[in-house]
Structure formats: C-alpha cells, structure tokens
Design goal:
By secondary structure, the protein is an alpha/beta fold. It contains 13 helices and seven strands. Strands 2-1-3-4-5-6-7 form a seven-stranded mixed beta sheet, with helices on both faces. Helix 9 runs antiparallel to helix 10. The longest helix has 28 residues. The protein is elongated. It starts with a strand and ends in a 7-residue tail after the last helix.
C-alpha cells in the first residue's frame, strides 16, 4: 500500500527501506535528507492518493506536535496520521481528539527494534480505532516480525504500552550493568565477554540485551575504554514511574534504574559531599580533600 513517511533518521529511514523491499509505495519527507521524495509536507500530501496515510517517525515533543498540527491543516477527511515515535500517551489521546474533530484518524504506534529493525523487524504496539488500524495492517505486518504486532487497545494504548516496555528496559539494563560491575571488580580475572557469551545459551538471564552486551564487550574489551559512563533518558522511564505513582503501584527497580542514570551524569556528587561531611562531624571519620 501507499504510505508517507515523515522522518528518515535511524528508525524512519530503515522502516522505509523495509517497507519498500516488501512492495509498498513509499513517499518520504525529511528536510535533512536529500533522497526524500517531497520537499514539504504539502508536497508529500499531493504525492499520496486519498485516503492518505502519514507516518510520523520524528522526535517526541515540539517537532512531532508541529508536524501533527500542519498535517491537520493539510489532510482531508478519512486520512490517517500515525505517530510511531515515543510520544507521551496523554499527548496521543489529545491528538486523537484533535484529529477526530476534523474527521481525520490518529493512530499511536509504539515502536521497538532500534537500528536492528531493518533486519529483524519492529515490535509494534498499536492504539486507535479499528477502521484505520485495519486499513494499515499490511504496513504493520510487514514492519513487524512474525507475531510481533498487536492492536493493543484504544487511543493512547500503543504509546502507553511502549512507555512501560521502556521502563522495564531501564530495569533490565541496570541489573546487567550492576552485575557486570561486580564481576569486573572481583578477585578473579574474568573475561567478561566470555561470561556474557556463555550466558546467552541455556541461562535464565539470556536475552537480546545480553547478546548486545556480548557484542559491546567483544568490541570494547572489559574496560570499555571508548565509552564515557554518561547515560541519558528519553522520558519513558519517568512517565512510567509517574503513572505507577498515580496507580499506587510500587516500581522500585525501574525507579532505581532511572536514578542511576541521573547519578551517571554527575562529575561530583554534592549529596556525597554532604554525607562525607556529616560522617566527619559526628564520628570524626576521615574525609578526602580536593
């Protein structure tokens, strides 16, 4: 089928290639990519036959909102806008209402697969009305590996599910990180790539993340000297914790993992200075001076 892809970065570009290889008629727009088929959203609209389908694969926030609002002015009744980025599900519910007021469909699609999606396929968690989801199923099924796509619920459900998916990912990554630091600092001269390698087979902690860790240790060695331990977060972990608080659900592992990312960005912890000062004051414990 025909689809307009907006955003040709690491995800959108590979998704466009995957869909083209499977016979879909792809029209594209990205102001930073010379190989786009359209020079503007208006031109992209004109390249698509009604009812049109636009797929946003751009950063969440203002960039997505600006593109969404422009598409609302350009689109016609019966067109569909799909947001495949990591937008907050509350924003997706509001965009659904805004689009419905103009008789335009809005579908939120949580997308997981990263740079490996071109080869392996993308796990797709789709939220929205039955009609546009059903019409776009050929796209969803060709993007996903077998059994890797589901229409998970009404508007917002796709991005909500992806949000929790990423919150879980935070906890899994932190558990691997802490465990391998214990291994590295032990009295044994362990080859950490070897350990990660054997854990991929038969171990109860085997996973795709572990396979990626094995690859990283194979390339970077035990010390990973080419990397700085500064870890960003893109918002989904925070949103997961906020929703857990609203639902009275304890999520200590995900919360600790998010705070560990915050800690990774500090060259010097002021809180640690306070703790050292207090230990010195009440117990005369030794402190280190700068």
């Amino acid at each position: 089928m025909q689809l307009g892809m907006i955003g040709l970065g690491r995800m959108g570009g590979n998704m466009t290639i995957r869909l083209t290889e499977r016979g879909h008629d792809m029209k594209t727009y990205d102001p930073g990519v010379a190989t786009r088929t359209a020079a503007s959203l208006a031109e992209l609209r004109d390249q698509l036959e009604p009812p049109r389908a636009f797929w946003l694969m751009i950063p969440a926030g203002k960039i997505t909102e600006d593109a969404f609002q422009e598409l609302l002015t350009l689109g016609d009744e019966g067109d569909t806008i799909v947001d495949g980025g990591n937008s907050n599900f509350r924003e997706s519910q509001r965009r659904y209402r805004d689009a419905r007021a103009k008789s335009i469909h809005f579908v939120d699609c949580g997308t997981s697969g990263g740079i490996w999606g071109l080869r392996n396929g993308y796990c797709l968690m789709v939220g929205g009305d039955d009609e546009p989801v059903r019409r776009l199923e050929p796209v969803f099924r060709d993007l996903a590996p077998e059994d890797g796509y589901a229409h998970v619920g009404t508007s917002g459900a796709g991005h909500f599910t992806k949000m929790v998916h990423n919150g879980i990912e935070y906890g899994l990554m932190q558990a691997y990180a802490e465990g391998f630091e214990v291994l590295k600092k032990s009295e044994f001269e362990l080859d950490l790539a070897e350990v990660a390698g054997i854990w991929r087979y038969g171990s109860v902690v085997r996973s795709w993340l572990l396979e990626l860790l094995y690859d990283a240790l194979e390339k970077g060695g035990n010390d990973l000297q080419h990397l700085k331990g500064y870890v960003e977060d893109s918002g989904e972990g925070r949103w997961t914790i906020q929703e857990a608080i609203a639902e009275d659900v304890p999520v200590p592992a995900i919360t600790a993992a998010l705070f560990a990312r915050f800690a990774s960005r500090q060259d010097e912890s002021y809180a640690a200075k306070i703790t050292a000062a207090l230990r010195n004051e009440f117990g005369g414990h030794a402190v280190r001076s700068e």
